[in-house]
Automatic annotation (TrEMBL):
This is ROK family protein. The keyword Hydrolase does not apply. Pfam families: ROK (PF00480). It comes from Victivallis lenta. The keyword Membrane applies. Keywords: Membrane, Transmembrane, Transmembrane helix. It comes from the Bacteria. Belongs to the ROK (NagC/XylR) family. The chain crosses the membrane at residues 67-87.
């Protein structure tokens, strides 16, 4: 029995692929060495990346090589790398064009640089797609053929897995920008330039901006009191507290947000008939107060059958999702390369 087990384990070890992942954020870059079995063998962080790419890119290569050596491996044992990066970008060519939070990074060919520096094949994906891939390989989307991941954070990013594939779309590779579907004609101004986007009604940043405008001259309001009159400190945290305390303004805004969430989810459910909607930050940080009202309103916006076939769940990876994002992108790259060969 032991022999059988160890043979099986050996087989698994032989099939286990090791990859490197890079999660490029506004202030830091996470580097991870992970495996197709969901193990993270090593992780590192590069701080203060709001400097010149000439300084940061060599650090990315050096940290990755250190992780590989630290795990007792050589680069020959690594199958690929993946980069998770924010938009705007040119994903087809792996170029970070003008990331909002890295003002010195303009048209940085990060994919080619890392290919040359590491001597490995690799890929470049936007961070919301990587979130979906991370949940698909390692988290709440495991085992699904069709599911949708929504970041539900300061903005609303999305990633769509349909028929076992990441949906990227056509030339712009912009599929999955689910926060920017229009939910209201001539509605609220969105940061993307359009009006009436879903994100303008339910994104954390948009809601904070709205509350700051509406409460600026209302020092007696509960939310203003919760932030000691510091308008700039108004965000989702005092909003949630005020909702739980029953403040009428907060309750009405929360209700509107929940209705917009349900409206958008209804469209996604009727469009894609997903097995799961996996929700990021706000959903797991707030809990049932966030998801229960959405479930209440959902029957207004989609058919019963696909609604009942879709579970609405929170991210399993939560704060750790960054460590898995680039790793998952690399594993998906290998999967797609395999499929091409067949
Ligand atoms: Zn928008």
């Amino acid at each position: 029995m032991y022999a059988t087990k160890s043979k099986k384990m050996e087989k698994n070890m032989a099939q286990e692929k090791l990859v490197l992942g890079f999660d490029v954020g506004g202030t830091k870059i996470g580097v991870g060495l992970g495996s197709s079995e969901g193990r993270i063998l090593g992780k590192a962080r590069i701080e203060n990346v709001d400097t010149y790419p000439e300084d940061v890119l060599p650090q990315m290569v050096a940290e990755a090589k250190k992780l590989v050596a630290g795990a007792g491996l050589t680069m020959a044992g690594i199958a690929a790398f993946g980069i998770s990066a924010p938009f705007p970008a040119d994903p087809a060519n792996g170029i970070m064009t003008a990331p909002t939070n890295n003002r010195h990074w303009r048209n940085v060919p990060i994919l080619q640089y890392l290919r040359d520096g590491l001597g490995l094949p690799g890929c470049f994906e936007n961070d919301a797609n990587c979130g979906a891939l991370a949940e698909w390989f390692f988290g709440a989307g495991r085992g699904c053929k069709d599911f949708i991941y929504l970041t539900m954070s300061t903005g609303i990013g999305g990633g769509i897995i349909a028929a076992n594939h990441l949906v990227r779309g056509g030339r712009a590779l912009s599929a999955g920008e689910l926060g920017h579907i229009c939910v209201e004609l001539n509605g609220r101004q969105c940061n993307c330039g359009l009006k009436g986007c879903y994100e303008a009604y339910a994104g954390g940043r948009a809601l904070a901006q709205r509350m700051q405008e509406e409460l600026r001259n209302k020092p007696d309001s509960m939310i203003m009191q919760l932030v000691d009159g510091n308008v700039g400190a108004i965000d989702m945290v005092p909003l949630e507290k005020a909702v739980r305390a029953g403040d009428p303004y907060a309750v009405a805004l929360w209700d509107e947000m929940s209705l917009r969430n349900a409206q958008a989810f209804g469209m996604f459910i009727n469009m894609f008939n997903p097995e799961r909607l996996v929700l990021g930050t706000l959903a797991w940080a707030v809990g049932d107060l966030y998801t229960d009202p959405i479930r209440k309103y959902l029957p207004q916006f989609c058919w019963k059958e696909p609604m009942e076939a879709c579970e609405i769940v929170s991210s399993e990876l939560r704060r750790d999702i960054g460590y898995y994002a680039g790793v998952a992108a690399a594993l998906n790259y290998l999967k797609e390369q395999d499929e091409k060969k067949r």
